[in-house]
Automatic annotation (TrEMBL):
Organism, as annotated: Cladophialophora psammophila CBS 110553
One Gene Ontology molecular-function label: oxidoreductase activity, acting on the CH-OH group of donors, NAD or NADP as acceptor
A family per Pfam: adh_short_C2
Keyword NADP belongs to the record: yes
Key word NADP present: yes
InterPro entries: NAD(P)-bd_dom_sf (IPR036291), Sc_DH/Rdtase_CS (IPR020904), SDR_fam (IPR002347)
Highest taxon, organism lineage: Eukaryota
Family affiliation: Belongs to the short-chain dehydrogenases/reductases (SDR) family.
Assigned keywords, A-Z: NADP, Oxidoreductase
Protein name (database record): Gluconate 5-dehydrogenase
């Protein structure tokens, strides 16, 4: 068996993001900080889009700058698609040329189905589904216009697959993200843009606190159902996000990767 040395990327460079620019929605929330720092440590400069509910960059910005990468921030209420498009217009005007979009801005409103108010339904759908669509549309269109190959990583949830209680709107939004990922991949794979999805299990400190304090029976159910026997941590996502952002995943598109300790396999 021969090796095509002309097209083969040396293994040390296979996961490198040197020279790449990543736009990250939700960089400071939930899983965002660990994943954003991971892609910066792999070599990418970071452009963060922050909404009013996102924490300030603080330590994340300092850590990225210590890694030798650039970090810049733009602000948008991502629930307002017109404002989000305005934000991308500003980003392009600043000369940013994207190679990666990390689409991980999330927001949830819990409650029984019969108690969900219109404003909460709208907000959850707008942040988790429409904003993800608009961001992917804006970044992918820019890549196509500039003849750039690239990576778009969306975020689903175990809630899109498991019939959890009190998360009906969030579950519907995240299920939409899964199909959105496939649809975008179908149209853009031939253009050199890979669109994939990461589906976390219960993997943030906030999830653990919320489950333990508000839904102790569900916390026990999730832990017992997970073969790994624990909730996940943000650090569990470092490797998979670098893989999906890098040349190592150039023939992976339209896929969903579960990072859930085996929860969906049981």
């Amino acid at each position: 068996m021969s090796v095509d040395e002309g097209s083969r990327i040396p293994f040390p460079d296979l996961f490198s993001l040197r020279g790449k620019t990543a736009i990250v929605m939700g960089a400071t929330t939930g899983l965002g900080p660990e994943m954003t720092l991971a892609i910066a440590e792999a070599g990418a400069d970071v452009v963060a889009i922050l909404s009013s509910w996102d924490p300030s960059p603080g330590q994340l910005e300092e850590s990225i700058q210590k890694s030798g990468r650039e970090f810049s921030v733009f602000h948008s209420e991502v629930s307002d698609s017109a404002d989000l498009r305005r934000c991308f217009h500003d980003i392009w005007g600043a000369g940013v040329e994207p190679d990666i979009l990390l689409n991980c801005s999330i927001l949830n409103r819990r409650g029984p189905i019969e108690n969900m108010k219109d404003e909460d339904i709208d907000l959850v759908l707008l942040v988790n589904l429409k904003a993800a669509y608009v961001a992917a549309q804006e970044v992918g269109s820019r890549m196509i216009q500039r003849l750039r190959k690239g990576k778009i990583i969306n975020f689903g949830s175990a809630a899109a697959h498991l019939a959890m209680t009190d998360v009906s709107v969030y579950a519907a939004a995240k299920a939409g993200v899964l199909q959105m990922t496939k649809a975008f991949s179908n149209e853009w794979a031939a253009k050199g843009i890979q669109v994939n999805n990461i589906s976390p299990g219960y993997s943030t400190a906030a999830s653990a606190i919320s489950l333990s304090s508000q839904y102790p029976e569900m916390a026990s159910y999730i832990t017992n159902r997970t073969p790994a026997g624990r909730l996940g941590t943000p650090a569990d996502f470092r490797g998979v996000v670098v893989f999906l952002c890098s040349a190592a995943s150039d023939f992976v598109t339209g896929s969903s990767i579960f990072v859930d300790g085996g929860l969906m396999a049981r």
